[in-house]
Amino acid sequence: MNKKNCPLSNETHQTLKEMHVHIQLPLLTRILVSVVLNTLVVILIFSGSTQASRSETQDMLSKKISIQVNNEPVKKVFRNLNRLTGVKFAYNSGLFEENKRVSIKAINKSLAEVLNGVFEPLGIGYSVQNNLVLLKPLESPVTSEARTYQPPSKSFNLVTGKVTDNNAGPLPGVSIVVKGTQRGTVTNENGSFTIDLLAQDSILVFSFIGYQNREENIRNRSEINVVLIPENRSLDEVVVVGYGTQKVSDLTGSVSRISEKDIQSRPVSSFQDAIQGRSSGVYVRQTGGNLDGRFSISVRGTGSVTGSNDPLVVVDGIPLFSGGFSTINPKDIVSIDILKDASATAIYGARAANGVLLITTRRGKEGKSNITVSADIGIEQMSNQYHVLTTEQQRRLFVDAFKNTGKNTAAYEDLTNPAWQIDTDWQKLGTRTAARRSYSIGLSGGTDKSTYSVSIGHLDRQGTIRNSDFKSYSFRANNDITIKKRLKVSSNLSGSHQIQHVLNQDSWGGGTYGSFLSSHSYTKPYDDNGNLTAINTAADPYFGANSNPLIDQFQPVREEKLTRLLGAVKADLDIVKGLRFGGSLGADLVLGNNYSYLPVYQIGLFSRPQGSVTIRSGQDLNWLTDATFQYDKEFNKHGVKILVGFSTQQFNTRSATITGTGTLDNALNQLSNQTNFNATGAEVNSGLVSSFARLNYSYNDKYLLTATVRRDGSSKFGPAKKYGTFPSASIAWRVTQEDFARNIPGLHELKLRSSYGLTGNQNLGDFSFITRAGPASYVYGNSVVIGNAAQNIGNPNLQWESARQFDAGLDLSLLRGRLSFTLDYYHKLSDNLLIRTPIPFTSGVQEDPTVNIGSLKNTGFEFSLNSQNISGKVSWSTNFNISTNKNVVLDLGKNSIGDPLQIPGGVMPLSNEITNLTVTGRPVGAFYMYRFIGIWQLGEEEAAKKWANAVPGDLKFADNNHNGIMDEGDKEFVGQPQPKVFGGINNTISYHGFSASFLFNFAAGNKLYHSMRNLNARAVPFNQQLAEVADYWTPTNPTNKVPRASQQSGNTTYLATKVSTRYLENADFLRLKNVNLSYDFSEQVVKKLRLDAARLTLSATNLFTLTKYTGLDPEASSNASLLWAGIDLTPYPLTKLYSMSFLVTF
Length: 1146
Hints:
Its main location: membrane. By secondary structure, this protein is mostly beta strands. The protein is 13% helix and 45% strand.
């Protein structure tokens, strides 16, 4: 397309170029921004096509072409012109003979001249809309040939008409199709159409972007005029906002919706997976390939330091007390509404600082009973694996390591040793291609008095790591009954039972998958009789100290069971017109039971002389009661909706752990068979009592106001600080409801909104405001006995963390809703942070006291775009979102000796050094370590020795304090674990029942500490080393990347083990999250099968990832702690899923 015809102005093009130049972000970020900007340009061009000016049409007709045709069919001329100019032709089938031949010769003629030369002799006229040529009969015949031509002998019913909008304006380009066929036409520039029908009772389907579809039964009519009604589904759509619903057009806060179509579009194990990449401002991180679907969710950044950052999850009105979100069957979910700003979240007060997720499950509808059956069958494979040294490379590494320390290398230079002939692939040995099966059956229907929806589901997943699997069984029953005209009762009941066989995971280098990587390739897993080997026995040379990882993988039994029952009963009573009372009683019960047995064995030097049984049980019970009054009133130009309510929640948590040892026989693997026992347990009761109110006011449907207040009382705080009040207010202006905006071309909806409010966070341990006693051991006489001692120092002044948030947003819809944008800016200030302040060990307590100190800030932009790029027989839509977040700690207060408080994260083994440090002026959990700058080389011996007693071949770090020696002053802040930019883009293309969708998600601006390299990329051969170590430093290979070979101890190994940027990697990524290919069987086929609908879908998940990160997954983060985030401890590997699903409704 010519630049002058592009809907973007020259100024916009210049702005896009400047953005490419001036945005200084990491490489992948710049690539993503470039892709995003160019994608937006393409979308804007496509979406603007229906509003193209007449000058664009004139340019098309003026285009010069050359064509020569001698006695060829007219359709061939159409194909040639399409190839030369891109124009397409639309016409009725009886307009000319099917095999009519024409001749024309044109050299450097305009398209208009060529069209005239072809059609005038045939008595055919035309009009042009963009690149579409509409053919029609001329009002007066031009040639006798045209006058004498008659349609085919088969009888046609010629129907003419006109399509207009509700203001009597003509609608050009409306698609008109005979239902159940491919016969159709489009309206011309006057909205008129002509179409031939084969049957007098044909049904015409009229469709046009931005308008509701309409069907018309012809019934012997020869003329039909149709009025299409504007489609305002996006504005009339109702979203859940907490204790009620609201139309999108009336929203004043920031709310995102994940629709049923998006949730059900691909096989997922948890609802968090369905959210990923779908909503702006919501960062969903898959922390590994765990079979129960382990994810972390943050809404608008990190809102706390030592507290939780998880949003509140509410299912059908019940706030969930504990996790285990995989117990919620995604097949039952019809929508997920995400409340982000203070105006939307304040109705949940003390628990809403991190956002709120409102999950709505499927309910019945009035009508006949429908049965829906779905089956998903697929396979999962590891999406990636590590490359390690071969046996020969590992042998040479041993030789050089022993030479560098003056040790005997004979055992490693003896090529006749059988060990050097073995090359075991431990990763392949311990993993597999796994099967995944999911089934669900749903029944729904009802009458005008009662509706129901019942479903059952089953998920069966093998693990890609052998001896791990996951099974889940679920049911749901939702009912709605109208007892009296004014009284409606509804109930929700769901249950889930999960059984998972787990492995030893997430321990540094010691998890099951990590142990595969550390096992040497020259060792054998089985002996000649097929028995597990000990890898190294007394008779073998000393090649390392690793046990056979298959012993720990296959022998222990680790079984986790989780059961959840979630239910509620609700009554709604219409008291008088406009006034409604609602009351509900709900409960959430979660039962956990874990069993593990470590068996007796003796394999070589490795053994366990006694068996051990551990049983952990837990119970979380949450009771909820709500009572609300809602008043709705419209008068003159005013609309008022008032909600007031009262809520109580009671929580009970019980836990117990019993470990027994002593069995000598693996057949006696129950707790009762043991002889020595150790037991611990706890029970906590807590509660929350709340009152709340919300006012929604609108004037003339264009000026909107929402005011909310909630007051919470919590048992987590002392008597003087139990209660907190959380108010918010928001306003919005629907500009398009103003007279001056009604006739702006292309403008469909424009709304400006702003909000400010206060929410809270009470995520801390129960009863931290009092000093608690707990078990403690001490020496009495010659024995160690158990007594009681203070566990903490109580703080009666503890109060809520609070989050003050400002939001400014814009909702824009163009081209009759074909193109819509949402843009938000937020500024969230969290203060009174709940932080544990370190105190000296001499205090005698086990826990540091929790105090309210400090503050942090999150700011960012959120942008989302939805567009219908192409419509008609071929449909193409795009959904895109991108978000930014800047997190900074403003204040942490002082420590016990008056210095600025610094909060360290966890420490890495071997070096015993921290990776993260939270301080004022930096993001939460910022990475803090030495900066790796290369390898000491020959000729630098003196400086190396002075700096850290190093030698050539050792790692070199930046001397930031310029004192010539290595010390703590050389450490620096080198990045953050949370992304600065993230988002997703989904494209869906449909044609005649076929549909293809492509979902990408991305993140940029964060880093990941690759702990496996910290262990297995040091050129220390006593663990299997990664392939990159093959380039280790020698005098003849002076690399600047890998240190010289060394033994398990010594200064070289010490330096290689230091926490440094050598193991900190860029975690930017762009991932093809999902590809879906589906086919909806035609109406004729499903009727023959006596079905209502049928769909076949092929799906692939996690197909590929573009990243510089060298680990298995750039999203892997093994720690839930915000202070120790961004650490890859080699969790359960991410998988690729290839699946086929079939869904039928009858």
